[in-house]
User: What shape does this take?
Amino acid sequence: MITLSIMYGCLFPAVAGAATLKAGVAKVNITNIDVGGRVKDSVYARVLVLDDGVTRAVIISADVIGTGFFIDDVRLQLQRDLNIRPENVIINASHIHTSRRICPDIDKRIVQAVKEAWRNKVPVDVGAGSGSENRIQENRRIRLKSGKEWTIRHANPLPPDDEVAGVGPIDTEIGILRLDRKNGENMAVLYNFACHPYQDSWRSLKLGTSADYPGYASKVIEDNLNDGSVAMFLQGCGGNVTTVLYKDNDHPRDAEPMGNMLGISTLKALKEIKTVGGAKLKVISEIIELPRRTDIQQRIDSLQAEQQRLLHSLANTSLNFKSFIPLYLKYNLSEGFPSYYSHRYLQEKNTGNDDLENMDDMNRRYMEKYLRNIYAMERLARIEVNISVLKQQQELLDRVKEKTVKVEITGIRIGYFVLVTFPGEAVVEIGLNIKKMSPHKYTFVAGYTNERADEGQPPAEEGNIGYAPAAEHFKGWAYEDCTTILAPEWQKIYEEKVLEILKKL
Assistant: This one.
């Protein structure tokens, strides 16, 4: 034993005077098989417990849409049974859309997993780093030449290509925390990445239960490390970021290739991360108040005015869908000679006859009118969705009455790995801003974290405050801007508080 202790001291030098950090992990299946349907791949909650003799903390990564329906029960039980402060329990939702597929006793299963991890905790070495993956995500906000913005969604049609001016940014960074046992075996990998998991889990009742790309990524990582290693996905600021080819209608949906790519990219970066002992553990949690929006009626009025303008723009047209399609195909197949072979046009020209050309001119005018109507109707459909969402938000705010919403922000430092949280769907620009202003090299942001059921969120089953667009987005008409309950000033308040916490960490 003495020889081993000396060896560990040489191979894994600890920081002088620092407490020994202990950690434990566990993984529990939270799939509800009683609702029927197929299980494409199971959903899990993964647990990491941390203890340096002074501070106790728990990080939970759950394959759920939101945490509001179980977070209070989990925290209460852990405080009672393990003396862990509620604010030191951090629960991140991967935000998969499989709410009905989650077992009803998820809180009990998670608590048991935490207790298992607590019983099995051992001293660990810690390392932090980052990787990159740029093939599986895209910003779903489209900037239009008109100056407006729209969101890529299945709920409405995309604008015509010639109206699109650009798209927003993505965050390709994979934030990684590595924890190894003192014998060098890996215990856990926490990896943070920002992207809506919309590939498999959307409309999951038909596709079957799926943890979407985060589930496949975690499986790839765990399968390529030693037995017992746990890979914990922490969803980032993915409010306006979704999987690529989200609206692809030519191929069956399959999140596994995307998960494989993210998992392999994480493993590649993981190999370059060195771990050391004596890691510092610190947790700071604060409740702040963010202003609720007050502009919803003005937004509705503006959209309804645009609706009326578009309705009045609809022109009379000779065509219907049945007659338009064959004409459109014919005139795009042969622009110069759409109605017959070229020789007939040349023959008419030689005889001074222009019947085919006149018919072509008339048909092109008919098609142009019909297309203008189609594009106007598509805009009307997008606007109608946003008006409906805004009215729901107004009803919610009318019930709540308060001018602010209380949100919980947590900052945790584990060695050189620093994580701050937000209890909602913050857009990617927020995460990028925080990384840029942080005094710590390895700073990452986890949205969808510690969401509470009493925060006045839009869909109660999600248990979060909903979308949190950047202040600059509020002038647009994108979905995130319409569905948020927050006022534009929220961003400055949140980012200033986060910077304050980062400096304390």
